[in-house]
Design brief:
Helix 4 links the parallel strand 3 and strand 4. The chain is elongated and about 80 Å long. Helices cover 35% and strands 28% of the residues. It folds into two domains: 266 residues, Aminopeptidase (3-Layer(aba) Sandwich); 114 residues, Alpha-Beta Plaits. Strands 1-2-4-3-5-16-6-15 form an eight-stranded mixed sheet, with helices on both faces. The chain has a four-stranded antiparallel sheet with strand order 10-12-8-13, covered by helices on one side. With 390 residues, the protein is an alpha/beta fold. The two termini are 30 Å apart. The structure holds nickel (II) ion. The site of nickel (II) ion (NI) has 4 residues, from loops. The site of nickel (II) ion has 4 residues, from loops.
């Protein structure tokens, strides 16, 4: 491994790691990041930045003005935790029962605070402005969209964001132009048939048989309708129906999710879902209602910005350590990148003793290789130095 953690980041490494541990011990759910927001605002204020609070309810923005004229670059971290009980036993274990930083957003916040500190120290050399965006509620509630509505992107030319990534080895960066994370939509299907005695199916419409056929046919959307060179997913994750072994069920409810990298595929899946639902309903004389909820759109990286991230990242992790990592997960960073050029990238954080992916995000014993915080912070600082210091 050929790591070049920046010396100006090494100087504050204890502060970065301690901030992450403090946040890990005090996780807060989306739009309720009150303590976290205060900690962030206090640190930004102590650095002498112009600080705005309560943007998008619990969001915080710090503005660093350089000495000379230049573009405004936004760096974004999300701050929210997840509703789950931590089962690991690190010395910085969550003290908030049923709430846990199981996705690494504590690290995102700590890295960005570290970058704010280092960049404040060299602000006399910066031509332009830096907006440090601390966003609430990434986990499903779309905090990014609320912050955009409240004007966080006004006058911003480019935006960058990091996700720590346990599916990648420590010491690597994952970035790629174009789509890197998928749309994440939710489907709800209610099948209504006609129940009856398990021994007398004549005259009934068995909602379980209808559900079984429907689930199988839905799998043909990905296997038969979309281009195999373009990734898509249709998952039915929950099925509920029936009451006893000898009763023909009159109702089944299915819940699932769909993923796509392009708006075209997203709409194709949506259209085919409805067509298949209608077809199966007609075939069986059942009534089937489909509700389709659009979640986060695909996250699409700007090509030029991606190149800038790769250039900065190579100075920190060396050439060849950049991987074109893709995931069918969803991210509300996508909303920023729909409005202005954006680039979202991954910083490998798999604990060194483990295989990448063996401590997955959203698992109850989630933890990261903390040295990855120094990698991410170094890439942020390097990126700004490349972009705004002439
Ligand atoms: Ni996350």
């Amino acid at each position: 491994m050929n790591l070049n953690i920046r010396p100006d980041v090494v100087i504050i490494q204890d502060a970065i790691i301690n901030t992450r541990r403090d946040l890990h011990q005090h996780p807060e759910l989306g739009f309720r990041e009150f303590r976290t927001a205060k900690l962030v605002a206090d640190k930004l204020t102590a650095l002498g930045l112009e600080v705005q609070t309560e943007i998008g309810r619990t969001g915080v923005v710090g503005l660093l003005e350089g000495r000379g004229f230049g573009p405004t670059i936004a760096l974004r971290a999300d701050m929210d935790a997840l509703p789950m009980q931590e089962t690991g036993n690190p010395p910085y274990k969550s003290m908030n029962p049923g709430v846990m930083h199981a996705c690494g957003h504590d690290g995102h916040t700590a890295m960005l605070l570290g970058a704010a500190e280092v960049l404040t120290g060299i602000k006399d050399r910066i031509h332009g402005k830096i907006k440090f965006v601390f966003q609430p509620a990434e986990e499903g509630q779309g905090g990014a969209r609320v912050m955009i509505e409240e004007g966080v992107l006004e006058d911003v030319d480019e935006i960058y964001g990091i996700h720590l990534w346990n599916y990648q080895k420590f010491g690597t960066i994952g970035v790629k132009s174009g789509p890197i994370l998928a749309s994440a939509d939710i489907i709800n299907i209610v099948i209504e048939g006609t129940g009856g005695h398990g021994a007398a199916p004549q005259g009934t419409v068995d909602a379980i048989v209808v559900a079984a056929q429907l689930i199988n046919i839905l799998q043909t959307i990905v296997s038969r309708n979309t281009n195999p060179l373009e990734s898509t997913v249709v998952t039915i994750g929950k099925i509920q129906g029936g009451s006893n072994f000898n009763i023909i069920a009159d109702k089944v409810v299915l819940n699932g999710t769909t993923r796509a990298y392009t708006e075209e595929n997203r709409q194709l899946i949506k259209t085919r879902l409805q067509e298949i639902v209608d077809g199966v309903a007609a075939t069986h004389k059942a009534e089937i209602k489909l509700k389709y909820f659009e979640g986060y759109p695909p996250t699409v990286n700007n090509a030029e910005l991606t190149q800038k991230v790769m250039t900065a990242a190579e100075k920190i992790v060396g050439t060849g350590a950049g991987l074109p990592f893709l995931s069918m997960g969803g991210e509300d960073f996508s909303y920023y990148a729909q409005k202005i050029p954006g680039c979202f990238f991954f910083v490998g954080s798999a604990p060194e003793s483990e295989e990448p992916g063996s401590v997955p995000h959203h698992c109850s014993h989630f933890d990261i290789e903390e040295q990855a915080l120094l990698v991410g912070c170094s890439v942020y600082v390097q990126l700004i130095e490349d972009l705004l210091i002439k």
